[in-house]
Amino acid sequence: MDIIVLTTLVASLFLVIGVAEPLAARLRLPYSVILAALGIVIGLGAIFFLRTELTDALNPVAEAIVGLPIRSNVFLYVFLPTLLFQVTLGMNLRRMLDDWMPILVLAVVAVVVATLGVGYALFWASSLPLTACLLIGSIVATTDPSAVVSIFRSLSAPRRLARIIEGESLLNDAAAIALFGLFMGFVMRGVPDPELGDALSRFPVLIIGGAVAGWIIARATVGLMALVHRHELAQISISIALPYLAYVCAEQLIGASGVIAVVAAGVTLNLTGPGRLPPQAWSNLREVWDLLAHWAGALIFILAALLIPRLLEEVGVADIGLICVVIAAALAARAVILFGVLPLLRLARLSPQVERPYRVAILWGGLRGAVTLALALAVTESFRVPDEIKRVVGILATGFTLYTLMVQGTTLRWVIGRLGLDRLSPMDEALSRQVVAVALQTVRADVAKTTEKYELSHDIVRSEAKRFGERLDAAVTEAEDSSDILDRDRVTLGLIALAGHERDTILSRVRERTISGKMAEQVLSDADRLIEGTRVHGRNGYQNAARSSVAYSKAFQAALRLHDRAGISAPLARITADRFELLLSQRLILRDLGAFIDGRIRRIHGRRVADLLHELLSRRIEAIETALESLRLQYPGYAEELERRFIRRTALRLEEREYDAMREDGLIGEEVHTALIQGGAHRRTMSEKRPRLDLALQRSQLVRQLPLFSDLDEASLARLARALRTRYVNAGDVVVRKDIAARSVFFIASGAVELESAGQIWRLGRGEMFGQMEILMARSLRTKVRAIAPSTLAVLDEARFRRLLRRSTSLREALRASAEKRGIDPTALIADGAE
């Protein structure tokens, strides 16, 4: 093909891509449908001009289109890794872990069900061998839910639901392509009826092998990117190589799934990149990948659609009947998952509630696209596949894809309208009015600053201010006078607005580098949980999300067990350091929210709602301070180092801001500005580096801070520190059960617990102890102990406690006071303990 013709054709394809997006918006159709339609039109036009005798002028262009070197390897090795890798970078993986069960069901289980359902339906309806039918089933099991996701976003559907569908799109193609490779091997070897159990048993091997390969390559790549941290373009270039290296190495070197390797590599970079790369470099890297994926996705749709006229040239009546079988079986398989399995997961509390209208929309929005066509093309290109199977695979996959795009895709928005999903609820209507009122208040303040800065005409300013003030008053009045909004809903609206402002504040702090990129992802996830929890469960949802943000995570508990039982401390040190920085970041953000309540929410919802929000905010701040104090008691020097790091980063940020202002004012030139910024590069790098947390538990310092041991000498303190074990508990955790006799004494280093015995309740805080009564009275008091705050406990066994009691006067006094508080004669206790 002539290079000029090829260049012109490629440029024309990008022109089509540029036109397709605004055309899709104007016609209110999914972008993928428009791309496919344009590709089909171009393909039909090329075939028409080659076969018509009307003119030969367009024959060179038509021949170039028909002769494009479109092969399945172009899709699978060039475009597909780009698309999968970008999807992983753009997802909030921490939030997706909250919904891992429905994501796995929709992505992996649904793929297996669709493959088997379509495969066996074709086997019963045709004369094809079972392996060929299962191969077709795996090809059509790949879904492209981007259309329903984009529409859900435009309809303000629950974010959690859109996130589940995004997670499906991430894993769906990977699982389906892994199955495709499995059954393709059977077809090429001529195995007509494989053992299904043996076939599916190889499926996990493909996935695990690909995941391990992707993780190893990504870790090595991230390390290389960290070495060139001063060269942003070099980091972006290295990231471009990552998905292709992962794909090729997994496929060619170890025989695992390349797409799984790409997904694993993207997930690894998503989780580790923000902590290893500068924030601006990470942001620019994601923008580059967004653009690459936009081009790759559009090109793969257009190029695949060009093939549709050729793949359907030999279609017959019997083939149309088989296409109908595929359509019915695919829809039935997806319906089984959405209407059968998901409700069961909901009953088991493993999945959020997905309302029936949304499930119908997801069912109808399961479009197929370029990946399905690319897999079908791979079959038609293989010389080891029988010709009849090639023909049927090409026709069925193409016909089914065409149906989903041109029937389901064009009617999806109409279906959503019929389901009533395009109408705002009363809560959302009220929220929109509140958003307008809050936004106009912010705009008025910014406009006032602008007019003052530029010294505009006083009469014009006063006239426009009056006009804008009237609009603002009307918006505030409309927000205040919503008669259909109950008081509890006003609280909910206020909390949603507060959580939204918290999220905006976090983003602002990240841009200013006050919060590191690694912590930004975590605090943003917490803010999203606040918003979603409030929208679904009101004030209780907000409080539950706030408590979970400061509680000890499951990962923390697992790392603690690994440290205690295996002596491996690195995971616990890392998670503890993350917790330290996270709590400091949260405290920094929350202290800025009070002004928003007074300046925005109070005017719209009144004093009572504002006061309630202040109370809830104060509780959150108190919980964070308590959690921070718990960590300070164990690692007193580390909190100080983190605060010093915060001050240094703030000073460097302000210094750079001054240099930027001087450049904008013309006081210094670009060369001087660059030199000044580069001069502080080392200090900036050091300020980003987090100090190392030494996890030698510093028990001696912890012991010294407990008043119970104030009279012990240094030798005794050292022995006690070696004997103590540390235990962490969340609020609500049961520390001691009624039916288990105590064999240890617990000292509260931080937090608080609640004791329940014989119908009475006592609360104990920092510096107090429990468990000693049961030991000294030599019988169970049937006492239940429950933590009422995240707490750190120092645990001492019975024998060491008795020896300590004989040496410590202050401990005996504390024991006497505790016994009197619980109505127990302390004389016998002290005498018994002294024996």
Describe the structure.
It is a single chain. By secondary structure, this protein is mainly α. The protein contains 34 helices and eight strands. The protein has a four-stranded antiparallel beta sheet. It has a four-stranded antiparallel beta sheet with strand order 2-7-4-5, with no helix packed on it. A hairpin with a 2-residue loop joins strand 4 and strand 5 (about 760-765). Helix 10 packs antiparallel against helix 11 (about 230-255), helix 21 runs antiparallel to helix 22 and helix 22 (about 515-550) crosses helix 24.
Strand content: under 5%
Compute the gyration radius: what is it?
A: 32 Å
Major sheet: size, sense and barrel closure? 4 strands, antiparallel
Low-confidence stretches: 831-835
How many structural units, i.e. domains?
Answer: 5
The spatial strand order of the largest sheet comes to 1-8-3-6
The total of beta strands comes to 8
State the CATH topology of the largest domain.
Na+/H+ antiporter like fold
What's the N-to-C terminus distance?
A: 100 Å
Mean pLDDT: 76
- The CATH architecture of the largest domain: Up-down Bundle
CATH class label of the largest domain: Mainly Alpha
* Residues in helices, as a percent range: over 70%
General form = globular
Number of helices: 34
Structural class: mainly alpha
Membrane topology: Multi-pass membrane protein
Protein name: Cation:proton antiporter
Main location: membrane
Subcellular location: Cell membrane
